[in-house]
Write a structure and sequence with these properties.
This protein has 398 residues and is of the alpha/beta class. It is 34% helix and 25% strand. The protein has 14 helices and 19 strands. The longest helix has 15 residues. The two termini are 35 Å apart. The relative contact order is 0.09. Bound molecules: cytidine-5'-triphosphate.
Length: 398
């Protein structure tokens, strides 16, 4: 298991809202991501779900009382505050947000927060009118100014039956915010990284396309890894089955032409361009306006060459390409370093075990502009991404 939460100490604060049931899922997913999770519940939260439910998921004591004589910690709030790599309050009620803005410390959660110096994520959940109240808005603005990461709230159905702003974000989005909070001052802070992902789709007619097997997982992992090191990330992606990652500017495109235009627009301000997308080299010369009907004859489709985005993108950024090869991996990849004037290429043998399309792992070979070859072991795509970003960091132009 690899990822930004592995072996991290997360304090999960849970305050009284019906969205407490979602915090159970968050606790479970934090555990699955390899984190150590200490839960602190407000009295209100214990009215919605039991401490036992969290304890069963985290395998650790749940704090509900500042004055518990049986606590394993001598001074609980200070002990938890010192250990924490990040504190996340999900759900955070209006009342809890107001207390944080004032710096009040009258229960185990708020005392822990006042004693802590680690990043804090606050995920509000409340009725739409409570969220819109000027006091709530002012309190959230105060927290934001203080560097607190405000996660959401999302828009959708509320417990009141009404629809509006106030829903607790879903677990994957919360995990994204937590990773971001831990890494926002990381070694890529202040840098803009443009990443492409997915396989482009070139229309034959309104219902058919030419595409490839790219899942987009490598590009999405790169975008998340760059975000988790503090970069400002633009992810230009062809259609995939993956959810938009939190706190990343996601630009959806379909064709190679659209991808080229989006990349050129964002690359101008970029410090690095990492082309993980599988861009079609050819597209149907003419896409039919209407669905092509079956006939007794064979059908020939004339293809035209697309523009090579990586080769032609203008700007003074670090240029990283991918080479998915089924034979002569290193020789083919080296030729691409030269022909596309790359700073680095990530070569993949698509026939190797654990490296094919859709896999969560990758065995990559990095080749730099001096054609020096570094073979990486089989790693998760997130870890491969960090190895690529380590190299990118050393290549920045200034
Ligand atoms: N690429 C690109 N624009 C294209 C085709 C490819 O920007 N029209 C980028 C890819 O995103 C990748 C790199 O160029 O980072 C190499 O892509 P790849 O498909 O491996 O190589 P090609 O140059 O297309 O050559 P071939 O398909 O013959 O291997």
């Amino acid at each position: 298991m690899a990822g930004p939460l592995k072996d991290k100490h997360v304090v999960l604060g849970v305050t009284g809202s019906i969205a407490c049931y979602k915090a159970l899922d968050l606790a479970s997913k934090l555990m699955q991501a390899g984190a150590l999770v200490d839960v602190i519940m407000s009295y209100g939260a214990t009215q919605f779900v039991t401490p036992l439910a969290f304890r069963s998921l985290t395998h650790r004591a749940v704090v509900t009382d500042s004055f518990d004589p049986d606590s394993e910690y001598s001074v609980e709030h200070v002990a938890l505050a010192q250990q924490a790599d990040v504190i996340v309050i999900a759900p955070a009620t209006v009342h809890c947000i107001a207390k944080l803005a004032l710096g009040l410390a009258d229960d185990p959660l708020t005392t822990t927060i006042v004693a802590a110096t680690c990043p804090l994520v606050v995920a509000p959940a409340m009725d739409g009118n409570m969220y819109d109240h000027p006091a709530t808005r002012a309190n959230l603005a105060t927290l934001k100014e203080r560097g607190v990461v405000i996660a959401g709230p999302g828009i959708g159905r509320l417990a009141s039956g009404l629809s509006g702003v106030g829903r607790l974000l879903e677990t994957p989005e919360l995990l994204g915010h937590i990773s971001y909070a831990m890494g926002k001052d990381g070694d890529l802070a202040g840098r803009t990284v443009v990443v492409s992902a997915g396989g482009t789709m070139e229309p034959i007619d309104p219902v058919r396309v030419i595409t490839n097997h790219s899942s987009g997982k490598m590009g999405y992992a790169l975008a998340e890894a760059a975000r988790d090191r503090g970069a400002n990330v633009v992810l230009v992606t062809a259609p995939t089955n993956l959810a938009d990652p939190a706190l990343i500017n996601v630009v959806q495109v379909r064709t190679a032409e659209q991808m080229g235009a989006a990349i050129q627009e964002h690359a101008e301000k970029a410090d690095a361009l990492v082309m993980a997308a599988a861009v079609a080299d050819y597209r149907p010369t003419e896409a039919a306006d209407q669905k092509i009907k079956k006939s007794d004859d064979d059908l020939n489709i004339t293809l035209s060459k697309t523009t090579d985005i990586l080769k032609t993108a203008k700007g003074n950024f670090v240029r990283v390409g991918f080479a998915a090869e089924s034979q002569n991996l290193v020789a083919n990849a080296k030729a691409k370093v030269d022909s596309k004037k790359l700073d680095l290429i990530v070569a993949n043998d698509i026939t190797a075990e654990g490296s094919g399309f859709g896999s969560d792992t990758n065995q990559a070979t990095l080749i730099d502009r001096d054609l020096v070859v570094e073979e990486l072991p089989l790693l998760s795509k997130y870890d491969v991404s960090n190895r690529i970003l380590d190299r990118v960091k050393d290549l920045f132009r200034d």
